[in-house]
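## retry 2 of 3
previous attempt timed out at serialization; input unchanged, resubmitting
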Amino acid sequence: MVAALQPEVVPKLTPEEVEALLDGNRRLQTWTANTPLRVGNINIVPTSRDGYRYRVTKSGNTGSAEPSWRTGVITDGDVTYEQDGPDYDNIYDVRGAIQSGWDMKLAKASQYVGTPGVDMSKIFDHCEKMRSRYDRAMIA
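## retry succeeded, writing output
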């Protein structure tokens, strides 16, 4: 992901910005005890991945012990889950994170377009071109 985003190429992204991009494009969360979850939260996977992901169908706090993961309704403390399909290979939406990174670079470059002595318009155009390669709408 880092190579596709080129965080060290002007305009640069900080390690904190890259970490925030990944966190913002996370598709799965590993189950943890005593954690508040709500309907619409990210999908949950067991600590020992079983090949499936689970979605929250009733908000609440997870229990102190991991539930037995199976098909049907799963109760965990106050939370209930249902199986939501096969597990993802990657917990992150890497394409989405890269696109978001190029969006950040575009925003940074746009601040300097037209500045005398700085040819940021070429960099802006490059960022725009790279962002379009990762456009989510173009994914089949």
